[in-house]
Every structure is written in C-alpha cells, then in structure tokens.
Design goal:
By secondary structure, the chain is of the alpha+beta class. The chain is built from one helix and seven strands; from the N terminus they run αβββββββ. It folds into two domains: about 1-25; about 40-120, predicted glycosyltransferase like domains (Thrombin, subunit H, Beta Barrel), CATH 2.40.10.220. Strands 2-3-4-7-6-5 form a six-stranded antiparallel barrel.
C-alpha cells in the first residue's frame, strides 16, 4: 500500500512541477473540439436511410441526407426524436451498404429536424463515396 501511495505522491509532484514551468509560458487556447476527433470530417451530402426504434418501441425509418461524414460516423438531420446512446442502422442509398451506429449527440429540433451526430460501432473508411482523409 505504501508503494502505491508513494507513486501517487510522485505523480502529483511531477504534475505540480510541470504546471509551475508552464505558468511562465504564454497562455494558449484549449484545442477546438474538431481537433479531438478521431478522424477528419468532410462536408458531403449523401442520401441515406436511417432505421431505429422510437422511445415507445415502435420501429421507424426515415429518408434523410448527411451534412458531414467521417470514417467513424456522420452528422445528419432527423425528424424522429432520438436520444444519446440509441442504436440505429444507417444505409447508404448510393452504395446500398449499411452500418450499425449509435447516437452520440443531438441538437435541439428545428422545423426541418434535429441535427444528430452518430458514430459507427465499427469504423468504415469505405462506407462513404469518394476518398476521406486517413484517420489521425
């Protein structure tokens, strides 16, 4: 137990020393959300079908378009309300391919639908038409 305590104490001291040395450096902005993404996004409109289940358990499907795509998912609009963590199936109408996905974020609905960010359960670099930048 004392070795664990000593290791934690050393880590805290090292962190404090690092913070002290950075205090003399000019302040920088934290990285933008886009900088933290696993893969680059590309503004691309692709006709897709989205299948899922409503909160009531009833199945739904909706024809829509993507706003942005990446190797790990897409941003799209949906008229059907969804919640973070909800599982969906996204089908590319152009390539007739499908991917399992889950909702990671939803913006408040507007008259034309809510913007919904979904991530694929498995990365799919070749799901979207055209070449996307390699993952970083």
């Amino acid at each position: 137990m004392s070795r664990l305590y000593e290791a934690l104490k050393k880590a805290q001291q090292a962190r404090a020393a690092l913070a002290g040395s950075k205090a003399s450096e000019p302040a920088t902005q934290p990285p933008l959300a886009a900088d933290r993404r696993r893969s680059a996004r590309l503004a691309l409109r692709v006709n897709i079908l989205v299948y899922g289940r409503r909160v009531s358990g009833e199945p739904f499907y909706e024809e829509t378009r993507t706003l942005q795509v990446s190797n790990n998912g897409c941003l799209l609009t949906l008229a059907t309300p969804v919640t973070p963590g909800q599982r969906l199936v996204v089908i590319s109408r152009n390539a007739d391919r499908e991917q399992q996905a889950q909702v990671v974020h939803q913006r408040a609905p507007k008259s034309q639908g809510a913007k919904v960010a979904v991530e694929f359960l498995e990365a799919a670099a070749d799901f979207w038409p055209g070449a996307l930048p390699a993952d970083t």
